[in-house]
Write a structure and sequence with these properties.
Elements (H helix, E strand, L loop, with lengths): L1 H11 L6 E6 L5 E7 L2 H10 L6 H9 L2 E6 L3 H15 L15 E4 L7 E4 L8 E3 L5 H15 L10 H5 L7 H4 L13 H15 L4 H16 L3 H15 L15 E9 L2 E10 L2 E11 L6 H15 L6 E4 L11 E3 L4 H28 L1 H15 L8 E8 L7 E8 L2 E2 L5 E4 L8 H18 L7 E5 L2 H14 L6 E6 L4 E3 L14 H30 L11 H11 L2 H5 L3 H8 L1 H14 L1
Parallel strand pairs: 7-10, 10-11, 12-16, 16-17
Antiparallel strand pairs: 1-2, 1-3, 4-5, 4-6, 7-8, 8-9, 12-13, 13-14, 13-15, 17-18
Helix pairs in contact: 9-10, 12-13, 14-15, 16-17, 19-20
């Protein structure tokens, strides 16, 4: 039962994003690695099937005791990371990659008049590698386009200045058919060739809009000339390029043998994520928690984590990427906080994984102790609304005067983020004539808090006014008269854009639309609106029953309410013409009402 509950908790916290999942057995051994477009859906599928595809999968599921995951940006990144981890750890239930086959790269060779070609071998000789690519077809399409557009040589000749000057080489068939500009005989300069290579690099970095525009032009010309097969070939190439992505942070030749550490402080606990990068590929991800004892600083905690994890994984990397500089020095090791580029993206990936880990731990703790969640939400609201204390006790006010009749108001009460319906109250407006929201709000706020003060009752930490700056100013006026303004935080919420207004500040505050602070404010606003409308309707129904409209056969409450809303009084209804009545409620009901009042006359 303990295993089932643990796995359910982990799965419930999985994000709906691309990543790689890892299954561990009861001995903490990695037994399976898989990739997913959606981690939540894919991992859940292992535990919700009625029967498995094969017996091996059923055995695998029975051995799962723990699940870990690594988040990535794209499905391609997930595919590449899965490949890395399988090769590194050789999990029992994965297909073993014994041939060490790798994904293809495009290499720009470090030589005079550089060649551009595909390779699966990664040689550190100063050459530049782009990729890796999940599809060899994509590689071939790119190389074909590159050679067609830029006339890059394909021969293996050593085109040094000395060899060219001595006339050691002769142009080949590639020159004759227009695929090469003949650098071997000095017919193309090094500068001219290097300009073409630079454009090739831009395309391989992902700047392929120029190439797509060029191909679109060729496709249009082919179609206009009725060469439809040729146009279709070009269209296929354009689609491949549209789906092409040249760079991956998960496997990147520009990042070689480094460690990545990021730290996030959560008060009593600090969390540290570690990514191990070897030969340009992520091969390890691990997160640890550090419980503070003496309010240690972030640099101190990060230093402890780095020392522990480098020792645990026998890391000897000469460069460490961090989001905070640690309080330590390591001989021959450079600490870097990247600002741009691939290393910055790699640090971002580490932070993303750590953020999800923290969220998972908080959800786990909240299920064990609901008070932890309440305290977190209240602390968030305190910070978002710039309060001195947590808003454990909130009251929200709203006026209700449908079509200007029977003005009433209501107050809803929330305690610890939840509705306390037994404390809801209605107010019939006593001192205000007609529909005046500002004056009504001033009266209700005064009456509510005058009573609480007289009864020596607790005042709320937060008052929410359903309305903009006008209603808020009216409420503030009453609090000033009572001498409690400044002791209680008061805000207004405007419905159209969910703007939060503070007294005396013309610039509204916009809370996170998906945040819990705005969600609770919206909930209490909706509650007071519902409660006020319900009370208003009861009053209207009661009033209608006491009018002579209730005496008319065939006229129900809905029709009576419609007539009163439009004409404002029974007297005006009785004085209305048949045409006026029929335009509102139809001829049949209008005749009943018209005849009734004519008989009375």
């Amino acid at each position: 039962m303990k295993r089932t509950e643990t796995l359910k908790r982990i799965i419930s916290g999985l994000p709906d994003t691309p990543g790689v999942y890892q299954f561990f057995n009861d001995q903490e051994q990695l037994i399976y690695v898989g990739k997913a477009k959606s981690l939540k859906k894919r991992v859940s599928s292992y535990f919700t099937r009625g029967k498995y595809d094969n017996a091996k999968t059923a055995i695998l599921v029975r051995h799962i005791q723990d699940i870990k995951y690594i988040l990535v940006e794209t499905e391609l990144d997930a595919l590449l990371l899965e490949n890395n981890l399988i090769k590194k750890h050789q999990p029992r239930y994965n297909v073993l990659l014994k041939d060490d086959k790798t994904y293809p790269w495009i290499c720009i060779k470090n030589e005079n008049f550089p060649r551009v070609f595909s390779t699966r071998k990664f040689i550190r000789d100063g050459s530049q590698y782009f990729g890796p690519f999940a599809s060899a077809k994509m590689v071939n399409t790119l190389l074909e386009l590159i050679h067609k557009i830029f006339k890059i040589r394909t021969c293996h000749l050593a085109l040094t200045p000395e060899n060219i000057a001595k006339g050691k080489f002769k142009v080949c068939l590639e020159y004759q058919i227009g695929n090469c500009l003949g650098p071997c005989e000095g017919l193309q300069t090094q500068d001219d060739y290097d300009q073409s290579v630079q454009q090739v690099k831009e395309i391989l970095k992902g700047n392929i809009h120029t190439v797509i525009s060029y191909l679109n032009g060729l496709m249009k010309k082919s179609a206009d000339a009725f060469r439809y097969e040729e146009a279709q070939v070009l269209k296929d190439k354009i689609e491949i390029l549209d789906n092409y992505r040249s760079k991956s942070v998960v496997v990147n030749s520009s990042i070689h043998n480094i460690d990545v550490f990021c730290i996030i402080d959560r008060g009593k606990i600090a969390y540290v994520n570690f990514l191990k990068v070897m030969n340009g590929a992520i091969i390890q991800s691990h997160t640890i928690e550090l419980k503070k004892k003496l309010d240690e600083s972030i640099p101190e905690l990060l230093s402890l984590a780095i020392a522990e994890l480098r020792n645990r994984y026998n890391s000897e990397s000469n460069e460490i990427i961090v989001n905070e500089l640690p309080d330590m020095e390591l001989p021959g090791v450079t600490f870097t906080i990247p600002k741009i580029g691939d290393k910055k993206h790699l640090l971002g990936l580490s932070i993303k994984n750590l953020t999800y880990y923290i969220r998972e731990q908080e959800l786990k703790q909240e299920k064990l102790d609901p008070e932890v969640k309440i305290d977190r939400i209240m602390e968030q609201m305190k910070n978002d609304l710039r309060m001195r204390v947590q808003p454990r006790y909130i009251e929200c006010f709203d006026n209700s005067n449908l079509q200007g009749t029977d003005p009433v108001a209501a107050v809803a009460v929330f305690r610890n983020g939840r509705a306390s319906k037994k404390e809801y109250r209605h107010f019939n407006i006593k001192t205000v004539e007609g529909p005046d929201d500002f004056a009504s709000m001033e009266e209700v706020i005064f009456r509510r808090y005058k009573r609480l003060i007289d009864e020596n009752a607790e005042l709320p930490q937060l008052i929410v006014i359903d309305g903009g700056k006008g209603q808020l100013s009216s409420a503030v006026g009453s609090l000033r008269k009572l001498g409690v303004y400044g002791k209680v935080t008061i805000i207004g919420i405007a419905k159209r854009l969910e703007e939060i207004y503070f007294p005396g500040d013309p610039v509204p505050l916009y809370l996170d639309k998906k945040g819990e602070s705005l969600r609770i404010i919206q909930q209490i606003r909706d509650e007071v609106h519902r409660f006020g409308i319900a009370h208003h309707r009861k009053l209207r129904e009661k009033k209608m029953k006491n009018t002579s409209l209730s005496e008319i056969n065939g006229i129900g409450n809905t029709t009576a309410e419609l007539l009163l809303s439009h004409f404002k009084s029974v007297k005006k209804i009785s004085e209305s013409s048949f045409d006026e009545l029929s335009g509102l409620i139809g001829q049949a009901k209008a005749k009943m009402v018209f005849d009734h009042f004519n008989r009375l006359k």
